Amino acid sequence: MRLHDKVAIITGSGTGLGKGIAKRFAREGASVVICGRRIDKVQETVEEISGAGGTAIGVQADVADEASVKHLVAETVSHFRAINVLVNNAGVRGAVGDATSMDLDGWWEALRINLSGPLICARHVIPAMKESGGGSIVNIGSMRLVHVKAGAAAYCASKGGLIHLTKVMALDHAADNIRVNLLSPALVLTPFTQYVVDDFDDPEEGIRYFGAQYPLGRIGTEEDIANAALFLASDESSWVTGAHLNVDGGMGAK
Ligand SMILES: NC(=O)c1ccc[n+]([C@@H]2O[C@H](COP(=O)([O-])OP(=O)(O)OC[C@H]3O[C@@H](n4cnc5c(N)ncnc54)[C@H](OP(=O)(O)O)[C@@H]3O)[C@@H](O)[C@H]2O)c1
Questions:
Q1: Residue 190 CB less than 6 A away from ligand 1
Q2: Residue 180: is it exposed, middle or buried by C-beta count within 10 angstroms (0-12/13-18/19+)?
Q3: Is the CB of 11 under 6 A from ligand 1?
């Protein structure tokens, strides 16, 4: 029960990595707040966690919309009276293409959700964390922070900004005992990345193909990411702030 008595908001937790993190945190004793724009996905996660004996509520929220984030924080405080952990996990791919061909709406969407979203959420969660005597903010980056990909400027730039946002926020809020860290996953199959195996006749072949490119010989799992998020969220990392943890099967070492 490494998060016993803790209240955690995990953004974008109706699916994928956020859902995995929320389920893991709930098993470790946290009261979790599930949020996203699609309320049906949010409710599915809440029901899974409640069905397994955990404590969860669901709130429909858009991290890029400040009024929506204020509502998320107010609902959390009204239900659980505190906020100890924020995982800024919600993310989108955004525009694809080079500078001349990309759709600018998709560029702004990536910046609004992937970079401004974590700032807006932190901005409204930090006062509640201060009242609780501190807290932990975990920003979810990507291996694409460092290993950029052609045609993915919107995604890479929006995630790249999280390095400096994380470090500056770590300095700004250290005196409040609020830690801010960055966790960068490499490939895990989720609704976000499912397309990478779509070109293979057998998806298992695709999984083996991509896994073979990693020093540890496989792609990641939701549990790999949830375990690392748990470390950064819990008091086990109480002397860690402003750090960037790659959870990438060794890809960053290549
Ligand atoms: N899977 C990977 O291999 C991988 C690798 C590196 C980094 N990541 C990062 O990990 C995070 C989770 O990705 P995933 O793979 O789990 O993909 P996913 O299943 O598509 O999850 C993304 C979640 O974010 C939510 N979301 C998107 N925009 C939002 C907004 N404006 N407000 C609130 N929620 C929003 C989505 O729900 P709604 O659409 O319902 O809002 C969705 O549940 C992302 O930040 C992604 O960049 C993933």
A1: yes
A2: buried
A3: yes
The confidence score (pLDDT) of residue 158 equals 98
Asked if 32 and 10 touch (Cβ cutoff 8 Å), the reply is yes
Contact 50, 31 (CB under 8 A): no
CA of 89 to the centre of ligand 1 (A): 6
pLDDT tens-digit readout, 48-78: 999 999 999 999 999 999 999 999 999 999 9
Return the residue matching tokens 């730039």: 157
d(CA 23, CA 112): 27
Cα of 175 from ligand 1 centre, angstroms: 31
Could you tell me if the CB of 177 is within 6 A of ligand 1? no
Residue 209 annotated as catalytic? no
Verify whether ligand 1 is closer than 6 Å to residue 59 (CB atom): no
CA 132 to chain centre: 22
- In order of their start, the domains of the chain are 7-185+221-247 (3.40.50.720), 191-219 (no CATH)
Of 138-142, 192-196, 219-223, the least confident: 192-196
Question: How confident is the model over 88-109, as pLDDT tens digits?
Answer: 999 999 999 999 999 999 999 9
- The candidate with the shortest Cα–Cα distance to 45, out of 241, 54, 207, is 54
At residue 124, the pLDDT reads 98
